[in-house]
Specification:
- 4 copies of one chain form a homotetramer.
- The first copy, chain A, is an all-alpha fold.
- Chain A folds into 2 domains: 108 residues, Arc Repressor Mutant, subunit A, CATH 1.10.10.10; 34 residues.
- Chain A is built from 5 helices and 2 strands.
- A two-stranded antiparallel sheet of chain A has the order 1-2.
- In chain A, a hairpin with a 7-residue loop joins strand 1 and strand 2.
- The longest helix of chain A is centred in the last third of the chain and has 31 residues.
- In chain A, 23% of the residues are buried.
- Chains in contact: A-B, C-D.
- At the A-B interface, helix 1, helix 4 and helix 5 of A face helix 1, helix 4 and helix 5 of B.
- Chain A binds a DNA duplex through helix 3.
Chain lengths: 142, 142, 142, 142
DNA sequence: GTGGTCTAGACCACG
DNA sequence: GTGGTCTAGACCACT
């Protein structure tokens, strides 16, 4: 089953778009396999603390894009062959990076400064991950 | 006077937030000097083709943050001492880069792959700028 | 046994109401006799291609109205004495005709125009029936 | 302005379909002129005691059918040239009458019986209208 | 239990 | 004030 463990609701955009984004990221990252089941509307809505209808909207749009397959009464499942998977991945990579580059340029950073900053943040992020994992392990070890 | 030339309305977020973002970017980039006047509500609304109320909302929020100073009867102006300017810049840089790093990591890219991709997009973006500028110059040259 | 041959699922209303309507029409038209057995839940669900629960719901409501009698272990059967039969018939006739008259009046038709239109449609419908029956007979004749 | 005075919410179908039906009837009957304004979402929702969103849905579907024209910030208005008006009228007349004829036939009425019944109900309905009008006139006369 | 739809209320951008 | 969208809760048909 697909994991929504490290999914946290942000406050800036519509919730259903955040859900779509998370699923697309999962597909692009290989975390979500083809033909894999997704949580039902009710389960996911309870998990995220939002309305079932919001999940419904996200799933419906994914179905429109041909990424999800829903049959009434049965569980819905991911529907992403390797080709579509690659396409989604490229789309996400390009968009995010383009936006970041545009932002950095509008702040008048040189390419070197921007890459330097990115490296620094990347390391911080690594530490945070390790920190969390360590914390988490300690807790589990109890 | 502050420039809104290369400001283009995106479709994804609220317009007043896009305007706030643009002004903050201008301050952080040094394009907008301290005590510099901003366009009046009416002028800017005409320039961007949006409703005066939307501009009003953006300016009001900037005022709340202490970034804009409105004196009744007079023009509003930027109110950003070097300290605040640096703070805004850091805030924008950190946020954007953190988001990008998080996105790249969630797509399972290594640091090297991500930086490589960023460089590539950066170059593409350079070309586009040059292309556009050239086109633009030609047109102005007419 | 009661016939569901010329019963076709419409898309506009709840299915269980369509089933109730069909049975009431059968009773009112004299097609379904008193004490006649109705198809079991399983058989009818298979026949109509709908869920047994939906049939169950329709039968249950008919039971509430005293039109159907279910004895556990035995088959359910119609329970409509001549009085009830007349009542159902009147109810259906009145409702449908009242609705039609109201619709025609709201479209500003005179009584003559409405009756004329009704005659015309009636004839068309006759032709269709004959056409279908002929087709059907041919097919059965094979 | 279009009138919703004699519009009463029925309980059987979706509300938004009832609203669509009422507006189409108005157009077909000539009660609602071309380019005439319809009540705003808020006004009509308050009038009918339903949610603005329900009205929104009805209006949106009418817009999809090309019957309504909505401009943001401005009032919406009917958009029905004589051709479309006739088409809507035919559609309503045919559908309603076909349904009624089918219902009468399924109840085993002959054409003569059905038309006789229709005439009778029509007269009752006339009386009711007159009765109501009389009541109403009395009240206004006070 | 599943997916799908209808209604409800709040918010946003706009004239 | 206008129209448009997002989220919320309840109901229906179905496995």
């Amino acid at each position: 089953m697909i994991s929504f463990d490290n999914f946290i609701l942000e406050s800036d955009g519509p919730i259903y778009l955040q859900i779509i984004r998370h699923i697309k990221q999962g597909i692009a990252a290989g975390t979500m396999a083809d033909q894999e089941e997704v949580p039902s509307r009710r389960v996911l809505s309870a998990l995220l603390g939002v309305n079932p209808n919001t999940i419904q909207k996200a799933y419906h749009l994914l179905e429109m894009e041909g990424i999800l397959l829903s049959r009434s009464g049965s569980k819905s499942c991911i529907c992403a062959d390797p080709g579509k998977r690659r396409q989604i991945r490229q789309e996400l990579l390009q968009n995010d990076t383009r936006n970041w580059v545009a932002a950095m340029k509008s702040l008048k950073l040189t390419r070197e400064e921007a890459l330097e900053l990115a490296q620094q943040i990347w390391k911080e992020n690594d530490c945070m991950d390790n920190g969390w994992r360590t914390e988490h392990d300690k807790e589990k070890g109890k």
